Amino acid sequence: MNVAKRRILVVEDEPTIAEILVDYLRHAGFTPRHLDNGRDALEAIRANPPDLVVLDIMLPGLDGMTVCREVRKFSAVPIIMVTARVEEIDRLMGLGVGADDYVCKPFSPREVVARVTTVLRRIGHGGDPMIPPLLEIDDDAQRISISGERLDLTPTEFRLLRLLSSRPGRIYSRAQILDLAYMEDQDVSDRIIDSHIKNIRKKIAAALPGVDLIHSVYGVGYRFEV
Ligand code: CA
User: Fold this and answer.
1) How many CB atoms lie within 10 A of CB 206?
2) 3-12, 109-118, 128-137, 144-153: which range is least confident on average?
3) Which residue of 1, 6, 102, 190 shows the fewest CB atoms closer than 10 Å?
């Protein structure tokens, strides 16, 4: 198959971090490219726009914020900004520099890959087969992997997560979950469902720190959303 993979430009001046990110992105099925300064990044984006940019803020020469602002004058390419300080995210959002998402250092490379996938899907490449799925479900083996990391799920947890993730955005009540995920226990209470969900969340958080995929909807039930 010779279809172009999604091209991700990583702009990062710390070589170790850049190398890890590039490795993880390649492993996840993207085509990454790395540049170590803002000026080259701006030129590269202008000359040959990638599908997404992971942009560090603290860069020599042109900083990430300036690059983002400049890019927005001519391109809507999705940009994920990388900051070293959590407090900076609020400030940046307030300034409206035009980034699509923010990641804070230190990050897990898997988290960044998940964000890249999520942003690409959100901005409309939804059905694009060239974007690797965040969740891979193997029904035969009853396994679910998230960004390439296999989750160690019990059979009940597998069915629950499979059900919730089959219709992202849809809210399932506990009664529906009970019916549709055919729990084996005869007298399953709401609390048991809650505890299964809690365990699935823990396992997802262990595989992908900072990523929350199952949301409680107060008084109603649960919803899966990336
Ligand atoms: Ca930096």
Assistant:
1) 11
2) 128-137
3) 1
CA of 60 to the centre of ligand 1 (A): 8
Residue among 90, 35, 87, 86 at smallest CA distance from 64: 35
Residue 167's CB is within 10 A of a number of other CB atoms, namely 11
Length of the chain: 226
Per-residue pLDDT tens digits for 76-129: 899 999 998 877 777 777 777 788 888 988 888 888 998 998 888 877 655 565
Of residues 113 and 208, the one with the higher pLDDT is: 113
Q: What's the pLDDT band for 2 if we cut at 50, 70, 90? A: very low
Peptide bond into 50 cis (omega under 30): no
Give residue 12 CA to ligand 1 midpoint distance, Å.
6
Q: How far is the CA of 82 from the centre of ligand 1 (A)?
A: 9
Tens digit of each residue's pLDDT (9 = 90 or more) over 48-86: 999 999 999 999 989 999 999 999 999 989 999 999 887
- Separation of 52 CA from ligand 1 center, angstroms? 18
Task: State the distance from the centre of ligand 1 to the C-alpha of 101, rounded, in angstroms.
Answer: 17
Ligand 1 centre to CA of 220 (Å) is: 44
Measured CA to CA, the distance from residue 184 to residue 179 in angstroms comes to 10
Q: Using CA atoms, how far apart are residues 39 and 90, in angstroms rounded to an integer?
A: 25
